[in-house]
Amino acid sequence: MIRETLIHQYSLLALPMTDTERDCHGYTPMDYDSDSEADEVYQRCLSYLLAHAPIEPDDVVLDIGTGTGIVAFELASKCDHVIGRDIYDEWPRYAREKAEQRGIENVSFSHGSFREPNVDEPVDVVIASYALYMAYDEGGEDELRAAIGGLASLNSRCIVIADKMRFAPVQSPSDYETLPPMGTVADLLVDAGFTITDIEIITKSVGVIIATR
Ligand SMILES: C[S@@+](CC[C@H](N)C(=O)[O-])C[C@H]1O[C@@H](n2cnc3c(N)ncnc32)[C@H](O)[C@@H]1O
User: Is residue 37 predicted with pLDDT exceeding 60?
Assistant: First the structure.
C-alpha cells in the first residue's frame, strides 16, 4: 500500500519514473526532495510564494498537503509556527524526521486533509503548494469546492494557492485537462468569502493565487 502511494506521489511533480525505479525501489520522500530541488518551475513557484505570501512574524501558518515539508521549513523563520498536514501519513513522518535533524522546533507535522485539516488552533494563513490540484483530479469541481470549503472553515486571513492549474484553454486531451482551470479555483475562493488579491502565472500550468478575507 505504502509503495503504491509512493508511486502515486511520484506523478505529482509530473516527472517521469523509469521502469527500474518503479520495479526496484519505488519512490521515496528523499526522491521527492531531490526532484523538487531540480524542478525549475517548482522552484520559481516556491520563490514567488515565499516573496509574496503575506505572512507576519506572529502568524500561525497551515501548510496543507505538506508532503516532505519543503514549504513548511522555508516559512518557519518567517512566522510564529507552521502546522504541516498531509493525508498520507508517511510524508509527515518523514518531515518530522527532517525537523528533528535540522533542529527546527516551530514546525509540526501530522495527519490532515483539505476537507478536514485536523487543526485545533486559530490559523492566520493557509498555504497549499502543488497539492490542491489533486482534489480536482480526484473529484472535479465538486471535490475542489469541498476542499476549499474545508480550508475556508479555518477562517484564516488569507489562503495562498501555489499550485498546478490551467492558465490556458485545453486544446488537446494532453493539455493538462486534469488540472483545474485557474478561473474555477479563483471563483471557488470568492464563493468561500475571499477576495483575490494577486494572481501570478508561472507557466501555463502552474501559478499562484493569493486570496484574502
Ligand atoms: C506534490 S506533493 C506537494 C508537497 C508540498 N506541498 C510541496 O510543495 O512540495 C502533494 C501533497 O499533497 C498531499 N495531498 C493529496 N491530497 C490531499 C488531501 N486531500 N488533503 C491533504 N493532503 C493531500 C499528498 O499526500 C502530497 O504529499
Answer: yes
